[in-house]
Structures are given as structure tokens and as C-alpha cells.
């Protein structure tokens, strides 16, 4: 088991949206726990995204309270099927979401998160058009956050707890390896799994991740680098041959080596 427990990218903001998402999902889950089992099941079926209902117009049993099927694309991402499901999703959101919120700003991050969740639900729905198994969970939207993270911080170290039987250790894994392995895992198991049996929404994870990759250039704040590229270069970084100051170095009030940034894993 490879469980992330933190990263090494500091933030300078209070990630208020990320915290609100975590608190909201937790409150909704506590509400689910407060219900009798049959009502909790009805809540998941009525407010989860059911592909057959959304895409084929099929109906749920009359004793289940329902809302417009289009709205379930949104409500489904705040429901969870159990404590392990909730903790796993919130752990990933806690570790990776704050850096993406900083890179996008509060409003853009909110829009990005919700769009990724919607895309994830629709991808899962179109793969399983006739399924009457409701899809629930924040993992599709969080997969979009992971897609954005691998673009913005590919070489950041992810502190990872490794456990196998009696062996355990904490190691550091670059994000492009950890998250690249994660999405490969989703693809392999998505193709090998029987989608009609329910369980993990592999294609929602894949769809959300791809949405994050595609959308991050449009939602990042101006000047935020991608793929580990250095920040915007200064005129004196290249010396006189590149039209700099002609001194081949920084102005007199700059001291120490010039930080040219870290190159990404793809050059």
C-alpha cells in the first residue's frame, strides 16, 4: 500500500475553499450516518448519479425521493458510501487541493473543482449508460485536482507511507511518478474490472484526471508556471548576449545565486 501523507510544496494562503469542501463532505456523511439504514440507502439512490436515469430516462422506485437527474451530477460528489471512502477522498483533497487553490485562487478553484466533478460523472455515465447503480463520491472531482497537480508541481516530493505486511516506511516520491502511477492504476483496473458490478468508479477517476490536465492552463493565475518550468525570466539572467543589462549578473542589490527554477521531468 502506498498512502500519501503530505507534500513538500508550501502555501501562502488559507485554502478556505478546500477546507469548506472537506467540512461539507464530512457534515453530509455525518447526516447519512444519522439516518436509518433504509433512509440512508434511499438518499444515496435518490441523490447519487444513476446513468440509466440521467441518460436513458429510466425511473427509480416510487418510494425513493428524487431530484432532477441533472442535479445529481452535482449532489453525487458530496455523498460517500462509507467511512473509508470518505477518509480516503478527504486525505487526497487535503494534501493536493490547497496547492491547486493557491495556483488558481478561490473562485477559479471552486469552478475548476465542480467542472472536473461534472466531467467525471458524465464520463462514468457514458461508459455505463444503462447502469442503475448510483455513482457517489468526491473522487472524480479530486481526480481533477490530481491532474492539475501533476501539471503544476510535477517534481514536488510526495511523502508516502509504504506498508506491506510487517514492513512499513515513509519515503518521498516525485509527483509525476506517484500520480502517473496512480492514473495508470485507474486505467488498468478500469479496463479489467466488470463495470456492471459496481464498486470503484474507475472511469470517473480517469475522466476527472483528464479534465484537470486539460483545464489547468485556463484556470491557473497569470504567471503560475506549468510542468516545472521556471518563473518568468529576468532581463539580466541571460547576460548581454540576450539583451540583458550587459553585466552578466543581477543588479547590485541582488545577492546570492540566481534561482532559475526546477525543470520538469519532460524537459
Question: What's this entry about, in short?
Answer:
By secondary structure, the protein is mainly α. It has helices at 16-34, 37-47, 51-56, 69-75, 83-104, 106-127, 139-152, 175-192, 202-219; strands at 2-7, 157-164, 167-174. The chain has a three-stranded antiparallel beta sheet with strand order 1-2-3.
Structural overview:
It is a single chain. It contains nine helices and three strands; from the N terminus they run βαααααααββαα. By secondary structure, it is mainly α. α6 crosses α7, α7 runs antiparallel to α8 and α8 runs antiparallel to α9. It is globular. It starts with a strand and ends in a 48-residue tail after the last helix.
List the defining traits of the structure above.
3-stranded antiparallel sheet, single chain, disordered C terminus, globular, 267 residues, mainly alpha
Radius of gyration from the alpha-carbon trace, in angstroms = 22 Å
Low-confidence stretches: 233-267
Strands ordered across the widest β-sheet: 1-2-3
How far is the first residue's CA from the last residue's CA? 30 Å
Please state the average pLDDT score.
86
Order of helices and strands, N to C?
Answer: EHHHHHHHEEHH
Strand residue content: 5-15%
The computed structural class is mainly alpha
Give the count of helical stretches. Answer: 9
How many extended strands? 3
Spatial shape: globular
**Oligomer classification:** single chain
The largest β sheet comes out as: 3 strands, antiparallel
Amino acid at each position: 500500500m502506498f498512502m500519501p501523507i503530505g507534500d513538500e510544496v508550501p502555501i501562502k494562503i488559507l485554502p478556505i475553499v478546500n477546507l469548506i469542501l472537506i467540512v461539507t463532505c464530512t457534515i453530509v456523511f455525518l447526516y447519512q450516518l444519522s439516518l436509518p439504514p433504509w433512509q440512508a440507502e434511499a438518499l444515496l439512490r435518490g441523490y447519487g448519479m444513476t446513468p440509466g436515469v440521467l441518460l436513458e430516462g429510466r425511473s427509480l422506485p416510487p418510494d425513493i425521493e428524487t431530484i432532477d437527474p441533472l442535479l445529481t451530477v452535482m449532489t453525487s460528489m458530496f455523498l460517500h458510501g462509507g467511512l473509508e471512502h470518505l477518509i480516503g477522498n478527504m486525505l487526497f483533497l487535503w494534501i493536493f487541493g490547497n496547492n491547486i487553490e493557491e495556483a488558481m485562487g478561490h473562485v477559479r478553484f471552486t469552478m475548476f473543482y465542480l467542472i472536473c466533478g461534472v466531467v467525471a460523472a458524465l464520463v462514468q455515465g457514458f461508459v455505463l449508460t444503462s447502469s442503475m447503480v448510483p455513482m457517489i463520491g468526491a473522487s472524480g472531482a479530486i481526480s481533477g485536482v490530481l491532474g492539475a497537480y501533476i501539471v503544476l508541481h510535477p517534481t514536488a516530493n510526495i511523502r508516502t507511507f509504504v506498508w506491506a505486511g510487517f514492513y512499513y516506511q515513509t519515503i518521498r516520491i516525485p509527483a509525476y511518478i506517484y500520480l502517473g502511477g496512480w492514473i495508470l492504476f485507474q486505467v488498468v483496473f478500469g479496463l479489467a474490472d466488470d463495470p456492471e458490478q459496481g464498486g470503484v468508479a474507475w472511469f470517473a477517476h480517469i475522466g476527472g484526471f483528464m479534465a484537470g490536465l486539460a483545464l489547468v492552463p485556463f484556470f491557473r493565475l497569470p504567471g503560475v508556471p506549468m510542468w516545472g518550468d521556471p518563473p518568468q525570466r529576468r532581463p539580466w539572467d541571460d547576460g548581454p548576449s540576450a539583451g540583458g543589462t550587459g553585466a552578466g549578473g543581477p543588479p547590485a542589490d541582488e545577492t546570492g545565486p540566481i534561482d532559475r527554477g526546477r525543470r520538469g521531468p519532460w524537459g
